């Protein structure tokens, strides 16, 4: 119920301090790292990157186009699609060897490029440079990698709809609102519901979608702008999900980064 860019603008108040704190911590940690070993690893990585890809400032064009269109507040779908199409064109012009490696035994160059682009968009890019760290970094992406996420979003929306139409959601809302006597207590109740949903349902998307459906009408009745609800959902549902070990975010981040959720 709120404008996407208004939502992002208000999230800056919480995301920027988080980024600053992270940068300070990484800077402190960086002073304790063996600089010689890090320099050698960086040199090896850069050499392998230049061997496998064309690297120059033109590669930033998709990101620049995305940021410019977002700044103009153009609709999200054509904005993201434009960035993706520019990326494909740049890949066809500058990254032909990498794309052709994906194509395998294509009968001609045209079919090889088409097959390579399709594999990249659908199943993600695969790099075989011999460097395990670089291969792991570059081998990812594609629509197929997002299917589990989309599936969770659809399940969350269906779950919310079932709860709504069966009247269970209304019962939960009525009980939760019995503790609300002010704007502050409404926001506090929303936060508590988001955290509880993260713990009980084990998924970030449900912790955002379900409380959003639960409290939207109450925010409207109190003449509160929907950006208050959108930001509260983000600050409570999204931010706390990585702190819960059995939540999808907590399990994924602990598994990939090797850092315990707590």
Description of the structure:
The structure is a single chain. α1 runs parallel beside α12 and α8 crosses α11. This protein is mostly helical and 262 residues long. The two termini are 33 Å apart.
Index terms:
single chain, 262 residues, mainly alpha, 75% helix, 0% strand
Largest sheet: none
The rough form would be described as: globular
Rg, nearest Å:
23 Å
Q: First CA to last CA: what distance?
A: 33 Å
**Secondary structure tally, helices:** 13
Give average pLDDT, whole number.
84
The helix/strand order is: HHHHHHHHHHHHH
Work out the strand percent. Answer: under 5%
Helical content, roughly? over 70%
What's the layout of helices and strands?
Layout: H1 4-30, H2 35-52, H3 61-71, H4 76-94, H5 96-103, H6 109-123, H7 132-138, H8 147-165, H9 168-177, H10 183-201, H11 204-221, H12 226-240, H13 248-257
In short:
With 262 residues, the chain is mainly alpha-helical.
């Amino acid at each position: 119920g709120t404008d996407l860019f208004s939502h992002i603008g208000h999230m800056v108040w919480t995301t920027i301090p988080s980024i600053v704190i992270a940068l300070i911590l990484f800077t402190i940690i960086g002073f304790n790292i063996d600089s010689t070993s890090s320099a050698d690893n960086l040199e090896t990585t850069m050499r392998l990157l230049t061997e496998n890809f064309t690297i120059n400032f033109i590669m930033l064009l998709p990101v620049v186009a995305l940021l410019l269109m977002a700044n103009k507040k153009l609709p999200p779908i054509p904005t993201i699609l434009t960035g993706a199409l520019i990326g494909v064109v740049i890949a066809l012009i500058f990254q032909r060897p990498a794309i052709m490696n994906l194509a395998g035994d294509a009968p001609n160059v045209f079919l090889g490029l088409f097959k390579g682009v399709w594999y990249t968009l659908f199943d993600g890019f695969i790099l075989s440079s011999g460097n395990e760290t670089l291969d792991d970094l570059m081998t990812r992406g594609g629509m197929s990698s997002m299917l589990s996420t989309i599936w969770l979003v659809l399940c969350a929306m269906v779950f919310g709809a079932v709860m709504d139409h069966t009247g269970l959601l209304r019962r939960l809302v009525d009980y939760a609102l019995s503790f609300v006597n002010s704007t502050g207590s409404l926001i506090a109740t929303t936060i508590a519901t988001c955290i509880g949903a993260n713990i009980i349902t084990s998924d970030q998307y449900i912790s955002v979608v379900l409380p959003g459906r639960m409290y939207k009408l109450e925010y409207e009745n109190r003449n509160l702008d929907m950006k208050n609800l959108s930001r509260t959902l983000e600050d409570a549902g999204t931010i706390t999900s990585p702190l819960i070990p059995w939540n999808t975010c907590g399990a994924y981040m602990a598994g990939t980064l090797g850092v315990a959720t707590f």
